[in-house]
Amino acid sequence: MSLLSTPTAAEPIILDGRKYTPVENGSALGLPQKTGYLSIIDVEAIELLFVIQIFEVSDPERTDSVPEQITEMTHDPTQNRLVLATSEGKRFALDLQGLSVSKLAP
């Protein structure tokens, strides 16, 4: 049993036939860090389209702390983007057309 409380990842969002889901264990996918990614899946074909890095973990080798996680995700239709928040209070935007990521003010 761990004394560290693990934050719960945000619920997936489905938009225009694509499912956007925080990756909770990127290491299992061969990625360089455990968290900080968002997977994009084609719902109809059940096919992984992309894995996008949203943020970089400061020390991916560190195991004595709870990894930062994407804990909130909302759709902003006026700007065609997802707005994401992390367990550390950081905020990011994912442009849904170009799949570019930008950091937002907290």
What distinguishing features does this structure have?
mainly beta, four-stranded antiparallel beta sheet, 42% strand, 0% helix, single chain, 106 residues, Thrombin, subunit H, 8 strands
Write the layout of secondary structure elements.
Blueprint lengths: L12 E3 L2 E6 L13 E6 L4 E7 L16 E7 L4 E6 L4 E5 L5 E4 L2
Antiparallel strand pairs: 1-2, 2-3, 3-4, 5-6, 6-7, 7-8
Description:
This protein is an all-beta fold. It has a single domain (13-104), classed as Beta Barrel (Thrombin, subunit H). It is built from no helices and 8 strands. The strands form 2 sheets. Strands 1-2-3-4 form a 4-stranded antiparallel β-sheet, with no helix packed on it. It has a 4-stranded antiparallel β-sheet with strand order 5-6-7-8, with no helix packed on it. The protein is globular, with a radius of gyration of 14 Å.
Q: Helix/strand-derived class?
A: mainly beta
What is the C-level CATH assignment?
A: Mainly Beta
Parts with pLDDT < 50 across at least 5 consecutive residues:
none
Strand content: 35-45%
What CATH architecture would you give?
Beta Barrel
What is the number of helices? 0
Which fold does the CATH topology refer to?
Answer: Thrombin, subunit H
How many DSSP-defined strands? 8
Count of folded domains: 1
What is the H-and-E element order?
EEEEEEEE
Subunit arrangement of the protein: single chain
* Spatial separation of the terminal alpha carbons: 32 Å
Main sheet overview: 4 strands, antiparallel
Q: Could you report the average pLDDT, rounded to the nearest whole number? A: 90
